[in-house]
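hi! just following up on the protien thing from before. the input was this:
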Amino acid sequence: AFLMALEEINNSSDILPNTRLSYSLYDSKRDAGISFFQAIAAQVWGSRVVVGPANSGSSVNSQLVLREYAIPQISYSSTSASLSVVEDYPYFMRTCPSDALQAVGMADLCKYYNWTSVATLSETTAYGSAGIEAFQVAARERGIDILSTQSFPPNADDFSTQIQATLESKALIIMIFCNLDAATHLLEQGYGMGLGGSGYVFLGSDSVTNKQIYDRFTEGVDVPNIMRGFHGFHAYSGDAKDDAGAFLWRRYDVECIDESFITYDACAGFIPDRADVSGYVAYTYDATYTVAYALHELIEVRGIPEEELNGDEIFSAMKNVSFMGATGLVSFDQETGDRTEGVGYIIVNSDGYINNPIGVWNGNTGISMCDPLAEEHTNKLIAVECDVAQVWSTGEDSVPRDKLLTCMAGHYYLEDQGTCVACPDGFFTATSGASSCTPCPAGTYDDTPGFPSVGCTRCPPGEFTPDMNMSSSTGCNPCGPGTYQDKFMQTSCLDCPPGFFISVARSAECLKCPAGW
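and the predicted 3d structure came back as:
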């Protein structure tokens, strides 16, 4: 997309007609360390503007170098909300939306479904940490409780601690903000530990919502039950067509310059063996045009010689650009360099096999859900085809609850019905939050038959029962003549010792035989 836009610009008689843009290509491989050294190389080789890199961590490290030399940087898919901090990243801007936007959208989605409790799982990267923090702020502003906040380091392979803490929170709505590979391992391990499946709803950031997630699970894993009911956001990138209606990525067959590229898209958006195209391709196209329009303003309109331009002038002009691009109206916040117009998200829902669009969100209109009976849904910015009904992990039409019920003492949680049920006669729970009831032990009985029981009553002296879960006092058997029991909660009676007797039942003691007997 970058090369495509560049060729168009260099062949245009309207944009920079007397200037030819040259370029150098670098592949950061989404590695922050590599990006740092490539930014140094870009400065050494005299780059005036940097387009990219692709992910937030790489952009963070690139700015460590570029800001020292006042080299403008415009990214097409670095979405971390932390990159909006001008004091830290003074020469950064982007055509893609900030994660702060999708975080607000996700909180709006929770509010839309009347969920008031969630748990969060995130990666401690620029993308994950800033994204989940923005979500938590937006959620609390909407009266949503965060029941558990768990994070894990990059490249983690064991999530058991975070998963167990999430399970203990009893949250059923789980927000995930991390990269695609981490999400795959997290979901897979979580399902094995009981986090996921019927009743659960995972909300995924745009990276987690990537269609490739279905191909990343270990072979043999129950992917449909893991993913069914999943909801996610992915950035809307326009229809990615030119004025003639041709899809941008199909106009050229661009070869990558290095077989070690790990972004797969042959520099033009293709994924091997799939017709799917990265949603950020069109943002790359618009980022390139942003640079060109800014340079056109400085060189052609203001008449500043190219060799006299400095980074501050170029960056200021880039933030002042406004045009109708492949992703819609492109304009920027003058302070942060964030995209202010033309950005929105498509809300998707998984049926267990693929992600299907069910609605849209943008900062101006909020959430607009699709009508599955209509051929298409349209709001001011986004048109989405809707031809499937919404799917939940429960298999039901109703929206799932947001957390497991904390049942009162005397009750237990019945998972398949999602409700609290009174313990049956002969069983009890002494504390709240139980998932099962305890049978009355031998030597006791339930003295509240027909009502929830928080404990069992001991059989009195003179009575016993060897059986468990006795549902009434009749379960306590009387000690017969010649036997006794002087203690509570016993499972048998004792024979009267020699020289003692008892002729009546339910005796707690034996009588001494009279003289001569």
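Residues 281-301 form the longest helix (21 residues).
The radius of gyration is 33 Å.
cheers
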